[in-house]
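User: Can you help me understand a structure? I only have the sequence.
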Amino acid sequence: MTAEDLRIRPADPTDAPALAEALARNRDHLRPWEPRRPETYFTADAQAARLSAAGSRSWALAGTEGILGLATLSGIAHGPFRSAHLGYWVDARYTGRGLATRLVEHVCRAARDELRLHRIEAGTVLANGASQRVLLKSGFQWFGTAPRYLHIDGAWRDHHLFQRILHDDPPPLG
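Assistant: Let's start by predicting it. Here is the structure, written out as tokens:
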């Protein structure tokens, strides 16, 4: 697969069957970095609900083989905060090719230009050096470590916290 075979586009509920299949295929690959999931999480219905959730937006990394990754901005806040939290993953077969960096950079541009967000935050389990490298390459800065931040793979895990300031324009009035 070449870079020309891939595209990043907004994800929507019609992607749910392909997303459920991709998540099921990558279950073991994602396990160390994700909360434990019930079996229902890996269904099209659950993914359709996730893609329809208020306060979030997702972008699919799509190729000829279907969905190969996803990035989501959740907890989108407007007003004076203008911030969101970023989560992302890439199919195990395609890691190490710069695709996660490409996906994260695309989402940051959309967050700045379309959503007019000021700041994006992301957290990684301490041992997830690959994700930390993606964030740093994408202009994020480490700003702290949160003890027992999220319940990941069956335990409360410390996380490194990163942020990217997208611009310093004032928020729109009204």
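Now, to help you interpret it: Helices lie at 16-25, 27-30, 44-51, 99-113, 129-137. DSSP finds five helices and seven strands in the chain. Let me know which part you'd like to focus on.
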